[in-house]
């Protein structure tokens, strides 16, 4: 397949994917018969550029890394906004990586819906639309005969959605439990090493793990969004924001951490969901004091982990990055390669 890619948003994740695509171009072509050109980019801060014959992405990366606008690219059509780029370019695949709003899902939700309705594939790491309307968007993609990939919304490029959809297919999954937010796990780890809460949060922001507004991380809202996504997509339920019990880590003091250490335990912010006997689900995000021999207790720093409870294999756990430029960019490549595979069949 020869993808014609249009980026909506071109921040760190979009740039991360671009670096991977540039570096692995030959390998992807040889190994997977995967070919691509990027024809359009529209970013609310950086401007936009469109060339139906493809953009020189090395030049584009150089521009944005030097803080320049896309309008300074030497050729192509400038000034198209996100929706014009989706509707009026020859891009057949939209990479939606604009900022996340988990409360309304917008403007990403409109971008994704418009692209699917125009018969374009969408790959996206944007959590908002999946929290709000996962089931509807998957249906909309099917109706329009295109694909909507969102591997990166949970655990970045560490397989969570694909693990469920492909590798664990045929299992009944009755619940899951995980460390779904890197910022809070990093803060708890650093506090155990003697850093203060404020210092640890500042460091997590510097390292790029935290959301633009880190309240979403420390109050458990980011993890809550992921619990909603996994409950609806993996457990097949239809819960919303309000159905999840939530408590963040802001009340955990340095004394609490010390006390847990003495008890040979460790605080973790756990996101979980479990199907009940009556078919309902109990979903929550809550700080838990785990025994040190619990597999999730050993997951340190910004690393994430997710255990699925399956009928054939029992608990299956993946541990890996849940944030980061290339780590999240890679999630988009997983989705693009899936589309490539599907279209070849
Ligand atoms: N702020 C999130 C985290 C980024 O810390 O895990 C990935 O969703």
Describe this entry's structure for a reader:
With 345 residues, the protein is an alpha/beta fold. The chain has two domains: 2-157 and 325-344, Rossmann fold (3-Layer(aba) Sandwich), CATH 3.40.50; 168-320, Dihydrodipicolinate Reductase, domain 2. The chain is built from 13 helices and 13 strands. The chain has a seven-stranded mixed sheet with strand order 4-3-2-1-5-6-7, sandwiched between helices. α1 (12-23) packs across α13 (325-344), α5 (108-117) packs parallel to α6 and α8 (182-192) crosses α9 (197-206). The longest helix has 20 residues, at 325-344. It is globular, with a radius of gyration of 20 Å. The termini are close together. The relative contact order is 0.15. The structure holds L-homoserine (HSE). Residues 181-183, 209-211, 217, 222, 322-323 line the site of L-homoserine (HSE). L-homoserine binds next to α8.
